[in-house]
Amino acid sequence: MNTITALIVDDHQLFREGMESLLRKVQYVKNVLHAASGNEAVYVAEEQRPDVIFMDIRMPEMNGIEATRQISMRNLPVKIIALTMMDDPHNIANMIRAGANGYLLKNTSFAELQEAIHSVMKGENYFSKYISHLLMDKVSENFRDNKHSGFKIELTPREKELVGLICRGFTNKDIADLLEISVKTVETHRNNIYSKLHVSNTADLAFLL
Length: 209
Fold this sequence. Notes:
Layout: E1 4-9, H1 13-23, E2 29-35, H2 38-48, E3 52-55, H3 64-73, E4 79-84, H4 89-98, E5 102-105, H5 110-121, E6 126-127, H6 129-144, H7 157-167, H8 172-179, H9 183-197
Parallel strand pairs: 1-2, 1-3, 3-4, 4-5, 5-6
Helix pairs in contact: 2-3, 3-4, 6-7, 7-9, 8-9
């Protein structure tokens, strides 16, 4: 992977400094920038053009959801990963709708942090295992409560397993290797899942919440 510049957006300086220390350990992270608010994040993103942004949600002046939306509207070549303590479906859905490419909680491991960076820089989405399960549970709940009239969700245990892996950004080959099945079988499962949920990609799941 080519060297990249990361932007940490959080209103707590101590957290930003700790996060920078971790990012400095990632071999391909060349430069680390800071922003203490959503407004500052938009400005730095435009001026410095970072490759990946770690975005908190709850901040003064402009929250991370609106900052993500503003940056996405500018069509900047940047990937945005939510890094927050907010684990409720409402904020998760709104971050994805705003244009986030990934979602991590602040209790994530360093290994998962690296995995998330690697995935989004390859053009994939990345949601932590906990977040992907929460998304799937909320989608299922909404269908059970008839919040989406005309649809009925009936995923098999294997399909539910794949949803979690898909939400985490695993490719068809990754899933095939992990589950010891063929890529063609994974493709079939993926098509069936999207058909049942009436979506075309992972991010579309957010619109079912």
